[in-house]
Amino acid sequence: MSELDLFKMRKAIKLTLMKIGIRCDLVGFAYLCSAVELVILNPDLINHLCTQLYVNVGEKYNVQKCNSVERSIRHAIENTMNAKSYDITFTISLSFP
User: Fold this and answer.
1) Helix axes 27-41 and 3-20, enclosed angle (nearest 10)
2) How many Å apart are CA 78 and CA 81, to the nearest integer?
3) Which residues contact 76 (CB under 8 A, 6 or more apart)?
4) What distance lies between CA 92 and its chain's CA centroid?
5) Helix 88-95 and helix 3-20: axis angle, to 10°?
6) Contact 15, 94 (CB under 8 A)
7) 28: which of 3, 66, 76, 89 fits an S-S bond (Cβ 3.0–4.6 Å)?
8) 10 Å Cβ neighbour count for 35?
9) What is the largest CA-CA distance in the chain?
10) Rounded distance, CA 34 to CA 42, Å?
């Protein structure tokens, strides 16, 4: 994947997460962007969240404990779900045809 393609993908990920309503000022937003990017580049990571995905995201941000990464991502998602009155999974499915 070229640098331009990576840039476009990262921008699309961020815009989609913001469109869903995830606040970009939360640490979990950055972690979630990185996690989505890693899963797009290596789909097998979705089957290894705790053992590989959270560890890889933590290494990128110098976080020692993968549970801190998981907690921040979960907080960002829960924050959004509590603030919105509609089903977030429905919104996500609308964002990706």
Assistant:
1) 130
2) 5
3) 22, 23, 26, 27, 28, 29, 31, 32
4) 12
5) 150
6) no
7) 76
8) 23
9) 39
10) 12
With 0-12 CB in 10 A as exposed, 13-18 as middle and 19+ as buried, what is 79? Answer: middle
Compute how many other C-beta atoms are within 10 angstroms of the C-beta atom of residue 42: 13
Amino acid at 69: V
- Range in 9-23, 54-68, 76-90 the model is least confident about: 76-90
| Residue 67 in tokens | 């549970």
DSSP 24: T
Model-level pTM greater than 0.90? Answer: no
Contact residues for 51 (Cβ-Cβ < 8 A; gap 6+): none
Question: Alpha helix locations (H) across the chain?
Answer: 3-20, 27-41, 54-60, 66-83, 88-95
Q: Is 8 left (phi over 0), alpha (psi -120 to 50) or beta?
A: alpha
Q: Give the C-alpha separation, 82 to 9, whole Å.
A: 28
